[in-house]
Design brief:
Elements (H helix, E strand, L loop, with lengths): L2 H14 L12 H8 L3 H13 L3 E4 L3 E4 L8 E2 L6 H4 L5 E11 L3 H7 L7 E10 L2 E11 L8 H4 L3 H8 L4 E12 L2 H7 L6 E11 L4 E9 L6 E2 L5
Helix pairs in contact: 1-3, 2-3
Length: 233
């Protein structure tokens, strides 16, 4: 875990433990810099993470404040480091439907910037939130960057494995989402009807050096998935 991520987690724990309440003012950037003995840029990065998660808001010329506690069980569309990180107080589980390694088609190669003969690790999972079907997640991992995955890892948090075991720092992601309808196969997996509405989520994850390592498509269960977007004015 990088320094700014550790600091963000630390501040989030203080808030979760009730040390800071909604509307409370946090220490200034300079105070946090001194308290954690890090650079100003590290503190700014940590605050950006907390702001993106909807934990704090920064008022120009006034300070850093704790936001109201978000409604429980909603997926933050701007927080993309996996559901386990997004919904920490809930039971997130996975059922692996398909697992394979192969040379992907041209569209996947383009998203992951692969050479023609490079392979991907392909995983299709059903994801559950507190034992309720949340979504179908289909992922293609650049095998050159993520060389080791198996079905056991895929039943848990893949991103934890990538960060902690493979020591890969996740940098940024591109996110696209739109409303659509379920096809026959998707409806069967989600135990819904063909033609039911769904939210589709297309994501490309990059390392902190800008290399794409994961191209994923997510199809959400329209009855069980709820979303929010924290906005800073």
């Amino acid at each position: 875990m990088l320094k700014y991520e550790h600091i963000a987690n630390n501040i989030e724990k203080f808030i979760a433990n009730g040390q800071y309440q909604a509307g409370d003012k946090l220490p200034s950037v300079e105070e946090l810099k001194t308290n954690y003995a890090v650079s100003k840029s590290t503190i700014i990065k940590a605050l950006e993470v907390l702001e993106k998660e909807g934990t704090i808001f920064q008022a120009r010329g006034s300070g850093i404040y704790v936001r109201n506690k978000r409604i429980d069980g909603y997926v933050n569309l701007l927080k993309t480091k996996g559901f386990s990180d997004n919904l920490q107080d809930h039971d997130i589980s996975s059922l692996v439907v398909e697992f394979d390694e192969f040379i992907p088609d041209e569209a996947v190669r383009a998203h992951l910037k692969l050479n023609q003969n490079e392979k991907v690790i392909y995983i299709k999972r059903l994801r559950f939130l507190d034992n309720q079907l949340l979504c179908i997640e289909t992922s293609y991992f650049n095998k050159r960057i993520v060389p080791t995955l198996d079905t056991q890892i895929a039943t848990q948090s893949i991103f934890n494995h990538i960060q902690e075991q493979l020591d890969i720092n996740i940098g940024f992601s591109d996110i696209y989402f739109y409303v659509d309808f379920l096809n026959k196969n998707e409806s069967q997996l989600l135990e819904l009807n063909e033609g039911d509405p769904c939210m589709r989520h297309e994501l490309i994850f990059h390392t902190n050096k800008g290399m794409p390592f994961d191209y994923s498509n997510i199809v959400y269960h329209f009855k069980n998935a709820k979303f929010f977007v924290p906005i800073q004015s």
